[in-house]
């Protein structure tokens, strides 16, 4: 009855006729869908919101977007009172993204805010770039990244081009929670809505080429590249950027170059999943390509596949790709004599600890934050007066070079990966062999991710119960290996399981648990912030005595991972 009462609010005249009719149909004939659509409010979290499109408080639609945007507008007008306020907006290729962007632009302009929109879809990193390039107070991108076609989303950026972080995120949430449907100003002021010229696109690509490629282009002519945008926005940037950088042999997966919110050739447009790159891998075999690049729909993440020592094309995980990119950038600084303790790289608590080792090896700092690039953006903002950011990455296939973009950036990262591959091939090595050399120099790591999908209200309850059980009944051993330390980010402590002492964390609170084992293994458990999932991140490590021993060492690591995964059943 509470859900029905909540739904009936959407039958009042504050909502348009189409919405009222759809809600009435749910009340009359679809109780299950009614429950999922209204059992909670779609949360405007610390970076925005993401959800299934449709009517209801737990869906992405005109009114949930309007509420979020009205709350943001109220906060911007408070923060920048008396100024000419500017907001840049971009959108991806998803169904309704253009329509949703127009709704957002209308609400902002109705609140006397100047809005700068693109004439079509653009990559998320270009939105981050545009915010600072145009001197905007904030930015918004309409995207649900790699989620299924039923989803869309809304991410908010601050004036530094990074996603909003404390205190702004919490204050925006507070304003959003105060907004009711009747408060939303939907009537646009067209004079305040400006369409951006192609000059932004060209300047963005020039910057990507500057930071992603190098003047030494030895091997560029010889490197064979296969690229797929998986029906997403990268088609607007990466092929052009590769051409401007000087790469000659680029093969596009033509079937996946057509932008589509249905993502018709894949089950999931997620470059983390080998199935999403199947067509690209087949094209690579046909053309004997050296490297495959696939990007997600909003072009902030990239998957990289390269040939192993047997000549087989293998998809690297995010940690492996980022290891090669980070090592290259740090080594380049070292060779130039420009590396020092004021340099730092950014990482996250679920990312491989090899980045901590690498930073120590080069004598730089590795700053570790919560999951999500917003926290790496926060690191840069807080350190920009005294320290120099080199690069940052997280395990979920995201990487950022320098800080002209302050979010994951597949465009620049693609150029850098191809430069490294070309340089290595020209010198008789390969991208893959460079990874193994790093493992031999430092430590050999292997990671695995297991995600349990639990949709709807029942799924949310199950995930909540799982996290409570892990906290209340912390295991003494996992797969027979002693748990020596437990990090509970929500409680803000790191507990030493051997002597029952605890230290306070400096990280913001987040629903994350990390188990550290006696043999150096690490398991992180966290509910996804953007999908109805609970995620288990496993990381194991071994010494690699020589590159030739890698296959044997990797087999040992996979066996370790299998044991850890089975222990969680």
Give a verbal description of the structure.
The protein is of the alpha/beta class and about 575 residues long. It folds into 4 domains: about 1-40, no CATH class; about 45-195, Alpha-D-Glucose-1,6-Bisphosphate, subunit A, domain 3 (Alpha-D-Glucose-1,6-Bisphosphate, Chain A, domain 3, 3-Layer(aba) Sandwich), CATH 3.40.120.10; about 205-440, Alpha-D-Glucose-1,6-Bisphosphate, subunit A, domain 3 (Alpha-D-Glucose-1,6-Bisphosphate, Chain A, domain 3), CATH 3.40.120.10; about 445-569, TATA-Binding Protein (2-Layer Sandwich). Helices cover about 40% and strands about 20% of the residues. It has helices at about 1-10, 15-30, 30-40, 60-80, 95-110, 125-135, 170-175, 200-210, 240-245, 280-285, 320-335, 355-360, 375-385, 410-425, 430-440, 455-470, 550-569, and strands at about 50, 85-90, 115, 140, 150-160, 195, 225-230, 250, 290-295, 300-305, 315, 345-350, 365-370, 390-395, 400, 445-455, 475-480, 480-490, 495, 500-505, 515, 520-525, 535-540. Strands 16, 17, 18, 19, 20, 21, 22 and 23 form an 8-stranded antiparallel sheet that branches. Strand 9 (about 290-295) and strand 10 (about 300-305) form a beta hairpin. Helix 4 packs across helix 7 (about 170-175). The chain is globular and about 70 Å long. The chain starts with a helix and ends with a helix.
- Alpha-carbon distance between the termini? 37 Å
CATH architecture of the largest domain: 3-Layer(aba) Sandwich
Oligomer: single chain
Structural class: alpha/beta
Strand content: 15-25%
The domain count comes to: 4
Fourth-tier CATH superfamily name of the largest domain: Alpha-D-Glucose-1,6-Bisphosphate, subunit A, domain 3
- Ranges where pLDDT stays below 50 over 5 or more residues in a row are none
Outline: globular
Q: Averaged pLDDT, please?
A: 95
State the CATH topology of the largest domain: Alpha-D-Glucose-1,6-Bisphosphate, Chain A, domain 3
Main sheet overview: 8 strands, antiparallel
Helical run tally: 17
Helix content range: 25-40%
Report the strand count: 23
CATH class of the largest domain: Alpha Beta
Query: How large, in whole angstroms, is the Cα Rg?
Result: 24 Å
Protein name: Phosphoglucomutase
Domain Alpha-D-phosphohexomutase C-terminal: 496-549
Keywords: Isomerase, Magnesium, Metal-binding, Phosphoprotein
InterPro entries: A-D-PHexomutase_a/b/a-I, A-D-PHexomutase_a/b/a-I/II/III, A-D-PHexomutase_a/b/a-II, A-D-PHexomutase_a/b/a-III, A-D-PHexomutase_C, A-D-PHexomutase_C_sf, A-D-PHexomutase_CS, Alpha-D-phosphohexomutase_SF
